[in-house]
Amino acid sequence: MTTSQEPPDLKLRPHHIMCEPFMVLETFNRGQAFAALADLIKQSLETDSDMVIQVVEGPDDLCRECPLCKDHRCQSPDGDETSVRKWDAIVLQALEASYGDRLTGAQFMARIRKKVPMSLCLTKCKWKAACRGPSTRPG
Which long-range contacts (CB under 8 A, 24 or more apart) does 82-91 make? Predict the structure, then answer.
C-alpha cells in the first residue's frame, strides 16, 4: 500500500517570507544547506506551490542553516536578533498575517505582490543591492 506524504511545512519568519523570492542567492555565502533551503523557499513562493509556510517568531528553518545564527539568535553584523525581530514585526503587519498562520507559498506571494516594495525596502534595507524585487530602487 502506497501512502502519499505531504511535504513538511516550511517554518519561516516574516522577512524571509517577504524577501526571499527577490534575493539574489549568489550574494550570500552561507553554505550549501542554506543555499538549497533558500532555493526551495524561492520555488515555493514563485510558483503556484501548495507547500505550506507557517509564520514563526524568531529563528526559523532558514536561520538554522545559517552560520550567523548562534545560540538560537541571529548574530549577523547587518542586524542582530533584536533588529531582525523589529523588521519581522513590520513585515508581519504588511503581510496582514500573525505568528502561527499557515498559508501556501502561492497565497503568501499574492499578498507580497500587493505590498512590495515597502517603504522599508526603499529606505532602510541593507540588502537592496542583492534584491531583484519590483522597483526596489527609488526613481
Answer: 84/13, 84/15, 85/57, 85/58, 87/14, 87/15, 87/120, 88/13, 88/14, 88/15, 88/57, 89/14, 90/118, 90/120, 91/14, 91/15, 91/17, 91/18, 91/19, 91/118, 91/120
Question: Which residues make beta-bridge pairs with 69?
Answer: 74
Mention every residue, 6+ apart, whose C-beta is less than 8 A from residue 1: none
**Of 116 and 102, more confident:** 102
Based on its alpha-carbon atoms, the radius of gyration of the chain, rounded to whole angstroms, reads: 15
Laid out side by side, the sheet with 52-55 consists of 10-12, 52-55, 102-104
Start-to-end C-alpha separation, the chain: 59
Say what the pTM is. 0.84
* Cα dist from 4 to 1, 7, 48, 124, whole Å: 10, 9, 20, 44
